[in-house]
Amino acid sequence: MTATFPSAAKGQLGYDVDEVDAFLAEARRAYTADEAAGDGAVDAARIRRTAFTMRKGGYSPKHVDAALERLEDAFAGRERDRALASGSEAEWYGDARGVAEQLVARFERPEGHRFDRVAFLTQGYHPDDVDRLVRRLQAYFTAGRPLSIDDVRSSVFRAKRGGYREAQVDLVLDAVVDVMLAVR
What we know:
Blueprint: E1 13-15, H1 17-32, H2 44-49, E2 54-56, H3 61-85, H4 89-107, E3 123-125, H5 127-143, H6 149-153, E4 159-161, H7 166-182
Antiparallel strand pairs: 1-2, 3-4
């Protein structure tokens, strides 16, 4: 029997093999289904939010994450195609435009104040790093400057005590990816 992905390097934790394989099997069933995704079904947003337990002898996170990004792209494309085929093109792009407008409004906040802060002794994302990405996102949304989905997905921020609340930044970046996938 061959593994779906390479194992994590010796001495490193990897994603739980059974969890990854079960999720991929569920995603395969959902993708090949004739009907649109229903409650609890796999869709692009669920793929992006998926997390796996870390285990010794698990799959290489780098390889699994890359596959999940490709899978998310495929599901998002299918979701967009279904929406456009059903005649709701204006609604699809209108929804994306509405989210983009909310994002731009957040990005226009003063640097250092775009997101909630964690307590002084708690680690959060370094505001300088996040604000640097936000400037690039502003240019993408307002001036049409090039920025890829991978640039957003692969963003890494240093930790800083009293920094931006990670969960809030992550939710906003998820919304950015949603918009970018919707208008691809």
